[in-house]
Amino acid sequence: MNKGELVDAVAAKAQVTKKEADAVLTATIEAIMEAVAAGDKVTLVGFGSFEPRERAAREGRNPQTGKKIKIEATTVPAFSAGKQFKELVGS
């Protein structure tokens, strides 16, 4: 499912126009990204949590040459599915 298909599904479930559903979905995604980028954790009970996670520096390899390279430490976004989401997918 891509964003357009998700907008269609949200519009149908919420009985709103596609334009309204797109605006709300876009605002929601932007708010989550801004909060995580600022270092906050966003929890949607039953759905899951978005949070920034630290990734330690590590050694990697250049796939073309096989030469060892150093990969710097960084912060990456992470998602953890909630209990209800896991149960729905697992059934």
UniProtKB/TrEMBL annotation:
GO annotations of cellular component type: cytosol
Domain of life: Bacteria
Key words, A-Z: DNA condensation, DNA-binding
One Pfam match: Bac_DNA_binding
UniProt entry tagged with the keyword DNA-binding: yes
UniProt GO MF annotations: DNA binding; structural constituent of chromatin
GO BP of this protein: chromosome condensation
Family the entry assigns: Belongs to the bacterial histone-like protein family.
Record-given protein name: HU family DNA-binding protein
Organism: Leptolyngbya sp. NK1-12
